[in-house]
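ingest -> validate -> predict -> emit
validate: passed (alphabet ok, no gaps, 997 aa)
predict: started
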Amino acid sequence: MAPSIIDLQLTQLATGGRKSPAIVAGDDSGDLEDVRLLDAYENSEDVEQGMRRVQVGVTGMTCAACSNSVEAALTSVNGVFRASVALLQNKADVVFDPRLVKDEDIKNAIEDAGFEAEILPEPSATGTKPNGTLLGQFSIGGMTCAACVNSVEGILRDLPGVKRAVVALATSLGEVEYDPTVISKDDIVNAIEDAGFEAALVQSSEQDKIVLGVAGVYSEMDVQVLGDILSNIKGVRQFNFDWITRELEVLFDPEVVNSRSLVDGIDGGSNGRFNLRVANPYTRMTSRDVEEASKMFRLFLSSLFLSVPVFLIRVVCPHIPLIYSLLLWRCGPFQMGDWLKWALVSVVQFVVGKRFYVAAARALRNGSTNMDVLVALGTSASYFYSVYALLYGAVTGFWSPTYFETSAMLITFVLLGKYLECLAKGKTSDAIKKLVELAPATATLLIKEKDGRYIGEREIDALLVHPGDALKVVPGAKVPVDGVVVWGSSYVNESMVTGESIPVSKEVSSSVIGGTINQHGVLHIQATKVGSDTVLSQIISLVETAQMSKAPIQKFADFIASIFVPTVVALALLTLLGWYIAGAIGAYPDEWLPENGNHFVFALMFSIAVVVIACPCALGLATPTAVMVATGVGANHGVLIKGGDALERAQKVKYVIFDKTGTLTQGKASVTTAKVFTGMDRGEFLTLVASAEASSEHPLAKAIVAYARHFHFFDDSATKDSLNNSGWLLDVSDFSALPGRGVQCITNGKKILVGNRKLMTESEIKIPDNVENFVVELEESAKTGILVAYDGSLIGVLGVADPLKREAAVVIEGLGKMGVVPIMVTGDNWRTARAVGKEVGIQDIRAEVMPAGKADVIRSLQKNGCTVAMVGDGINDSPALAASDVGMAIGAGTDIAIEAADYVLMRNNLEDVITAIDLSRKTFARIRLNYIFAMAYNVVAIPIAAGVFFPSLGVQLPPWAAGACMALSSVSVVCSSLLLRRYKKPRLTTLLEITVE
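emit:
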């Protein structure tokens, strides 16, 4: 049975585990044959006798090509039987012959391929990070293109103690996994800053730091008072107050003092003098984005304010006699107009444009090139030529035209483009901002005595709630954190988190999710998960991780970025030499030259235009911005995508494999028939069966127990004694669940067997023809027949039905229209499977398949080079989810299903399978369009700027116009990606009209 959304627990991605599912108790998924199915999977893996299996942590993989290199390096080792590499999880799963290969050989093979390797301990169910490592998120300022990203990633990965580093240009964030015993957060920040970038820690997995916004600090005396209060609080290790941000950073020992006690201590010690609030790391990040955009806007306005006069002096003033006469007035060796232009442009070039020189020097120092190199090169050529022309004129009396306005306007247009790019990139992360806004700012804490009586309440910051706190949620208020209802009843709107539009009833012992809205009654809840452990925080974390991941298609842009700038500089030099030599040998008439100009100036303007019009940024932004928007849009629709590579694979899906129970069906099994074939009383028969199944956690077992309880408590034939006797079940011993068969136990010294034909056959229980015919009838009507034997003879049959989801048939048909082939793989018997398949319209059916067999079915389809998706909801599906190219955990299944999956479909609705595939197709259509535009722009713009069409059409692009085109090209790519925000998922009414493109 698919768990409700309240059971959702997202597992951290960094531990991977996609290829190694962990055991989770209390599985509620699967068919009768799938009881304890994970055990069956682990015992039946195709690891041949004498083979050994290890998992290796691989550091340094950035794309699909990396994982392919690692896989090829491993499979080339003599003695390796099988190797598979999971890129997102940075892990390799290797099966080998220990007589021929040692662990060290596997590690050396990966390191020889250029990656770092570490043999991992056996996988556990805890989902913790590798021993001793922390995960830190750093904001990185000053990155302008993919080359900067590559440079920062290289620097971080070379640091001792850093296990993994991923940097995202679109978000200006870096995620670093590091060993705090080897390297500190400050060392990482210093390394980034030493490379010429700006860096600051956003958040980390450490729990001993809190950042507080402080109002009421106006002088050094106030800071000293604050320091005295903190010094007297036991457990405070270190504190620092930032005057600029008005934020107080406190490091404390969580074993001695917790965050709420710390805030209360400051508040009490100051008698309310200071107003404190916990700084949300995501809000701080957003404010930094706004600050960056504001800074860029100020630079643009400064440049515009200084450039406009230069432009007016060159273009407008010659038509105003009075002003023009003043500009022609000679002051020393130069005219007044020349002095003004030189002064104004010098400020633009070296004050406003300082950032381009700094960034270019940083890139060159790290052995890379980027857009800043091109801007610095183009503007410097224009500026220094103009200065040279002035000085040459003063010395020789031959005055050549100057091009100061070219330099100034270039910088102005580039800054405008950067500002618009900041605004556009900010829009791509709107999904995370909306998710952050779901969490309420405050919570109402119930204060209670030692005896448990509530004596009052007070409002606290929601980030100061601790597990075990009792909280009050009034109608219309948001639930502050994940918890359990301890008093009251109400309906809660969970649509903002799960996408499920219908309010969910909540009573005592019901779980609630932080960020959801209480609609009617007052609820008292006990906090169970707070901070980064809440469902909402983990959804945000998952979306962030996905947005930071690189889709394999991006390796194309990374390659282009590495050779782009040197290529453009070479083309600019060729343009300069080509036009200059052509002029020198008289290949074109002198009438083409500017007034008072020469062949060098004429060639230089074409060369500068080539340098500044070329744009590597558009290529670098094509993929990450689209992936960011797509993951955000998916989250808004209840589809959580774990990375760009998963998004890319999903758009190529050819086969979708569905589990039956809980995926195609509702997962709410109910007994429809109970037939006794002996003289045993019906009530006695049901008691016997329920006693055997009471120890099983399988959904069908629970359905049987519920049916028997209903019979005894509400049926007319039930006796008064049975109603009052809470212990109506029989005592059983030697209970065991038999994977793929059923259960067995002993009561009153006699063995009870409850299960399928296989169990009866193995136990040598004869199935009479009339019983066989009855079971066949059940199976042909899409019901599961459960046989019961007692003391060596078959005594009865139960018919269990699990109704199909209402949307199942239309989704299956819709997938067919999209060119995707649906396949049902189930552990149930053939007759039931065929009946269900016929009802939903699935032609390809695989029945009586064990969990490991489901993974084998997927591998057989993958052999033809086809991309296979698996949709499942429980532990029994995790091997198949891990083996598939695209794993989709539906209905927010179990923890292990979520860990093994690439997509998490929050709602228990098959329509989201369509949404996932459709969104991925539209996203990659947009990425391809972005690449086509970025490539076409450079292919067309560079020849125009180089003057290829000047002889025939007379088209010459001024350098400042080339700069404007370059600035707008990257903005247009980001805006193209932003169009994905208008994505609307296919509706049921239009679903069947989807056709293959």
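Residues 214 and 695 are 56 Å apart (CA to CA).
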